[in-house]
Amino acid sequence: MTFRTKLLLLSSFTVAGAVALVTGAVSVAARQAFERADGRRRADMLTQLRRELDARGAEIVKRVELAAASAEVERIAAGNADYDGAQQAATEEELGFLDVVQPDLTIFSSAHWPARFGYKNDWAIAPEEWQSAGAQPGSAFLARIPLSDGTTAEALVAIRAAAGKKALVIGGRPVNPEFLKSLGDAPGMRALLWLPPGEVVDAQGGNPDIAKLAGLVSEARKTKTQATGTVHWTAARKSSEAFLAFPLERRGQIAGVLLAGTSLGEQLALENEILWIGVAVAASGILIGVLLGWWTTERVTRPVIRLATGVRAVAGGDLSARVEVLSNDEIGELAGAFNRMTEQLAEQRERAIQAERVAAWRELARRLAHELKNPLFPLQITIENLRKARRLSSSEFEEVFQESTGTLLAEVGNLKTIIGRFSDFARMPPPRFETVDLNGVIQNVMALYQAQLSVDGRPKIEPDLQLTDGELRIQADGDQLRRAIGNLVLNAIDAMPAGGLLRISSSRQNGYVHFSVADTGQGLTEEECARLFTPYYTTKQHGTGLGLAIVQSVVSDHGGKISVVSAPGSGATFVVELPVSPGESA
After folding, report:
1. Which of 40-49, 355-364, 459-468 has the highest mean predicted lDDT (pLDDT)?
2. Best label site of 25, 31, 121, 510, fewest CB within 10 Å?
3. What DSSP element (H or E) covers 301?
4. CATH among 3.30.565.10, 3.30.450.20, 3.40.50.2020, 3.30.200.20 for 69-175
């Protein structure tokens, strides 16, 4: 993708993103404002409904008390009235239901069902409500009343004693949509009353789906406190309503749940309007962004292309590359800075090459002096001893001569070994590739060093080979690979003077083979890990510091890479990755 295209896309998406962010923020803010306002409206309506319901209950209590004190009820209790005498008392007190019953609940007279004369009253009223009527009359409550057509009706009723407690008067008014609507009404809102076992009275006369309200009603009944929720009547979002539910409790039992709801249609309509306005503004912004981006890219792209050409030349090693400065703006300053940078790079490269040469010779001289100093000191002592021994007798001189010449030969051998190591590192031959089984090479190396893992007088080192099943064939130089693995194994053995576990594993992934050599030694610091593969650097008291440098050289010649994972006190793990074929390496 070109810079011009990226700039066009960036400007377009920036404008679109900003508009989307503002649109989303406005939409969220509007939704939250609506929710707060609707929440207050629902709470106010619920408060009004509860207040009106208490007032209607108090009115019904008063009406029942007046009926109980009426002359007609006195006559009914004395047996001097017709079986339908309760109708007159109910009419006078505007009660939809009224029964005058004996203390054993046998009906004296029924206003809404006169034929029930002589039957037991079977309204759904708890025994404690009947019992409290004569002692401490209670307030109004909800009850279910059988009707003459076989159905039942919910009513708000009250009980009072009459005729010197010779009779009980129970009366009330039906709880229906008209009753619920009379409690309070507001535009865009409606009141519902859930009644057990599963009936809903809608103030607007509708027939809402009880199953949709089951969760909200269940929560209010369970917690016995207010509960809020949203009900989706249909798949259309505009049919949703938010409800505030309040349980109606009497004597520890839930007699019903009063719900105040508001429609979310107005809120959703506003959100949709904000969304479409945002889409229109975003489309306009994208168009403006494309035009602005095209004009900008024309002024920026061409100088950038010239600068990129110069950068590629410098990356290819041509530090003489320069970019023509055609303007005095930021692009011109960038081109000038690039030209100055290439000049400085050329000077710094020359100085760095010279400094590296001097540092390399100094390091080589230091390491050689250090390595050669150790065997030279015994040589000097031995020669001085020989010169002193010349004054001794021939037999004594012969003994000293034999001992001294042995020491000289041993130290000369050490010198040869040191020089050979430096020579080998300097003359690492290129690898000769052939098909090699990596698992077989690892097993051969471990067999070679098996004796060093359990030396008498030294803690034992346990080997643990976790090699992949079967052969692990790659194109490699077998001798160099064995040498590299051997150096890693020796390094791990030296790291565990107190014994431990030596684990070697191998695997194959995505055209590469991986093997690792892990020890349980003292581990390495972060600084030691960074310098570990530097030639002549060592953390041991013995050695030339060339072992791991040789390993890295072998791995690099095979197109692979090596890394170390370690921390003080947690051992070290060397991980090597080699391509199956040198042509597959990066």
Report:
1. 459-468
2. 510
3. helix 265-315
4. 3.30.450.20
Give long-range contacts, CB 8 A cutoff, 24+ apart: 266-273.
266/34, 266/188, 267/30, 267/31, 267/34, 267/35, 267/38, 268/237, 268/238, 268/240, 269/238, 270/30, 270/34, 271/27, 271/30, 271/31
Average pLDDT on 261-278 reads 77
Q: What digits encode the pLDDT tens for the residues 124-162? A: 888 888 877 765 667 888 888 999 888 888 899 999 888
Does an H or E element contain 532, and which?
none
The stretch 65-86 carries a mean pLDDT of 82
Question: pTM (2 decimals)?
Answer: 0.45
Report the distance separating Cα 97 and Cα 82, nearest Å. 17
Task: Pull the structure tokens for residue 41.
Answer: 């409206």
DSSP assignments along 145-165, one per residue:
EE-TTS-EEEEEEEEEEETTT
CATH superfamily of 434-584: Histidine kinase-like ATPase, C-terminal domain (3.30.565.10)
Question: Which two tokens mark 470?
Answer: 């079967």
Contacts 24+ apart (CB under 8 A), 12-21: 12/285, 12/286, 12/289, 12/290, 12/293, 14/289, 15/282, 15/285, 15/286, 15/288, 15/289, 16/282, 16/285, 16/286, 16/289, 18/285, 19/278, 19/281, 19/282, 19/285, 20/278, 20/282
Q: Which amino acid is at 215?
A: G
Q: How many CA atoms lie within 13 A of 505 on its CB side?
A: 10
Cα diameter, the chain: 165
